[in-house]
Structures are given as structure tokens and as C-alpha cells.
Amino acid sequence: MISNRREFLRRSATLTGAAVMAPSLQGLIACAANNAVGITRMRRPEQAVRGAGGYGLLRAAGDELELPAGFSYSVLSYNGKPMSDGHPTPGAFDGMAAFALPNGNVRLIRNHENRDPAATARVKGDASRAYDSRAGGGTTSLEVRVGADGSATLVRDFVSLGGTIVNCAGGPTPWGSWLTCEESTAGPASGWAREHGYIFEVPAAAETQIQPVPLKAMGRFIHEAVAVDPGTGVVYETEDRQTAGFYRFLPNRRGQLSAGGALQMLAIDGRPNYDTATGQQMGETLPARWVDIDDPDPAAASTDSLAVYKQGFAKGGARFSRLEGCWWGDRGVYFHATNGGNAAVGQVWFYRPDGRQRGSLTLVFESPSVEMLEYPDNITVSPRGGIVLCEDGSGEQFIRGLTREGRIFDFARNLLNATEFAGACFSPSGSTLFLNIMGSTSDAGPAKGVTVAIHGPWKDGAL
Fold it and tell me: Going edge to edge, which strands form the sheet with 285-292?
């Protein structure tokens, strides 16, 4: 049991500090803009070879993964396995974050993107603590012991949030909690007992299942991920729709999201309803401003998942194409437009605030082809400065690494099934990469979900 909250926050700050201090992705601009044709023609294993940021060709490291030579992994968790609280491990493993615990271990908080309909969904964990007694999503928390060499073993695990739906991604906060996001605005009209489409907060210090509280002021829409400015406590939010907005939440009290605040949507100054999906130039900086969302929790969201977006768009808000992963660093936030770009296979954007109402938006990278980068989803950063990209593409599923110079390489391939990678996050020490293979998003689905811990010679490459 963690009794000293101040000590917990001091230790868990290691995670946030690593992200803030990491170098920029700006090398991508020069790399892609100066030699786009050459990059497009490169074969995936040759893009960043061993000794030049990459780790070399992949080879089977077990039944679940291909990894570069020298790397190994252990399976910490898989769906159906009995947990320490007596409940079976839920499936549909998605977003995740790692926090330092006072006893030296690591807390993982993991999303479960269960998509079973209300008629067949089964609540996970203690039903008396579920937000919605008919809903099958939520989060689980794992305590993991990491060895000196980066190897990891599971200590205990339990359901930490129950009764939500389609818990896709989210993000860690500087005050030691995980924000889990619902990627659906369905409600009673779809058979659920309560309205959905909210963000919930799960303290990393929690040792048992919490009582869920929907943070309604943060918006009701198709949530994906969040990133928190550690200096101001402002929370940036992405929306996973083909037509999507980029949002920020200004809390009334820093670190106390339940105290309410204001939701806003990004707009391009002087260019109302700017469409970022195509026709963009890498490296060009656009002046940005924010427009207010008057009703962040509209009743119409049950049947119109764009009810929040339409409010911002009516005031000149910008359109993006499927916003997914986001990450705070370089005094700003990087985020993916998964279907953005002329080739519609992915963009990486960067927003930097300039005062309270203004900022700048820059297209850092746009993939010209699936060979370069296909549908980037979750994003995280290594303490050594490299970037980890989880692809949610077609066919084979890869983890891609990105060097400081903007060169892409393969780091892992899914051997287990055809489901996506998700939840990539490093241990606070940087010695271990935790990673999910999602598995089926239905309880009855056949694809297995697993959480693994990868360790090896990180110093030999960009990660």
C-alpha cells in the first residue's frame, strides 16, 4: 500500500521528466523534405541500419515477437489469465503508461478496448464499483519488478476501473495518474445503462478498483489520447474520427480535473475551417488560436458523435484526419493524424503554445507511402531520445523506431496474430520497453492479447 503521496509523486515524476527532456523530432523535416524520393525508395530494413540508429534485421525472439539480435522479452500478462484479485485478465489490450512506485517497482496501467455491444458485454472486476453495470471495458493495473538488466516479472495485477466502453488510449499526468479515454459516445439508446464518451482518471497509487468519475467538462466525443503540459496542467486531447478536431482542456485547478474547466478546439488564425488533411508543406508553421466549446457534454452526442466537433467548426476550428497518439515534449505536443497526408497514410504534427490563447502548428512529417510509415497510432519516446511508433496498418504489424535524424527502422514484428501493437511505454529507468499486442476486441474473439517487457542493448541504437 502506498501511504506517502508526496513520495509517490516524486518518484513517478521520472516518467514525465524523461519525456520533457527528450530531443525534438525536427530532424524529420530535413530528412523528408530534402530527400523524399530517396526515402520513399528505401527498403524497410535498410532505412536505419545497425550502427546508424537502427538495431539490424529482425529475428524470432519467441512465439510472439521478432526483435533485433541481442533483445529478449518476457510475457507479463495475457487475456484470460487469473489476476491477483481473482478476476480473469480482460482482453483488448490498448493504451498504457508506466509509473515509478515507492518500493522500486513499476506500475503499469493498461486500457481494455472492449467493443462488445450492451446485449453481450460483461462487466469486468467488482460490478458494484462499475460506472455502467452493462459495460465491458476499463483498465487493469499491474505491479512489475524490473531487474538490473531490464528483465521484468509480474508481482500482482487487478482491475482498477470497470464499467466503461472502448477504452482506447489516454495518457499519463505529471501528478501521477492515468487518463483513460472512451472511444464511443453511445448511451442508453444503444442499450447502455449510462452515457459514454468521457475521460476517467485512475491514480497510479490505487491498489484496488476505484469508483469511476466521468470528467464531463473535458468533452464527450470519440476520444483517443491525451498529453499534459507539465508546467500549466493543460490537457491536450485527440479525436479519432475521419473528421476530427484537436482540443485542449484548461482546468480550473491544476492537477484537479474533477474541479472543471474550459474545453477549446484549435483553429488556424485567419483561415477558418482550415483542412489539414492534404496539400500541406512539411516544416511550414501555421499561426494557431483556440475557440471555445460552449457545451462540452451535449445531449446530442449519443446519436451524433461529432456534436462537440461541430461546435468548434462553426467557430472556425480546423479539421484533421483521424487524430490518435500524442506525446508532450519540446515545450509542445506531438500528435498523429493517422489518415492524414496526400497519401492518406499518416502525418506527425507539432503544436507549441505561445501564451494562453495563441500558438503555432507545424507539420513535422508526412509519410509519402506505406513503405515509409503506415497509419501511425500510439507514440512514445525513449529516455535516449528516439521515438517509438506503433503502426496500426494492414497485414503485418510493426513497431517502428525513429532516430533523432528522422530515419525510420523496424524494431519489432507481431508473430502472434494480425492485431495491432499498442501501449508502448518505457520503465522510469529506461531499461525496459513495455508493449501490448491488442488481441480481439470482443470477449469471444479468438486473437490473444499479451503484455510484454522487452530489454536489450538500447545503447546500440536510437531507442
Answer: 223-228, 235-239, 246-251, 261-268, 285-292, 358-366, 347-354, 332-337, 323-329
Q: Is 37 exposed, middle or buried (0-12, 13-18, 19+ CB in 10 A)?
A: exposed
DSSP state of 214: -
Can you tell me the distance from the alpha carbon of 61 to that of 41, in angstroms, rounded to the nearest whole number?
29
Instruction: Identify the DSSP state of 33.
Output: H
Output DSSP code: residue 7.
Answer: H
What domains are there in the chain, each with its CATH number?
A: 5-460 (2.120.10.30)
pLDDT along the chain (463 residues), means of 10: 33 35 47 42 47 89 97 98 98 98 98 98 97 98 96 98 97 98 97 98 98 98 97 97 97 97 98 97 94 97 97 98 91 93 93 94 89 86 88 87 84 96 96 98 97 97 93
CA 109 to chain CA centroid, Å, is: 12
**55 within 8 A of 44, measured Cβ to Cβ:** no
Residue 352, exposed/middle/buried by CB under 10 A (0-12, 13-18, 19+)? middle
Alpha carbon distance 445, 121 (integer Å): 12
Element (H, E) at 228: strand 223-228
CA angle 41, 45, 46 (to 5 degrees): 55
Angle at alpha carbon of residue 262, lines to 196 and 171, rounded to 5°: 60
CB 84 within 8 A of CB 156: yes
The three three-digit cell numbers of residue 248, written as one number: 485542449
CA 99/CA 139 separation, integer angstroms: 15
Burial class (CB in 10 A: 0-12, 13-18, 19+), 273: middle
Q: Which helix or strand (DSSP H or E) is residue 109 part of? A: strand 106-112
For the CA atoms of the chain, what is the radius of gyration?
20
* 21-22-27 Cα angle (round to 5): 135
Q: Cell numbers of 102, please?
A: 515507492
**Rounded distance between C-alpha atoms, residue 452 and residue 143, angstroms:** 13
Pairing between β-strand 246-251 and β-strand 261-268 as defined by DSSP bridges: antiparallel
Surface-to-core class of residue 395, CB atoms within 10 Å of its CB (0-12 exposed, 13-18 middle, 19+ buried): exposed
Which three cell numbers, joined as nine digits, stand for 133? Answer: 453495470
Residues in the chain: 463
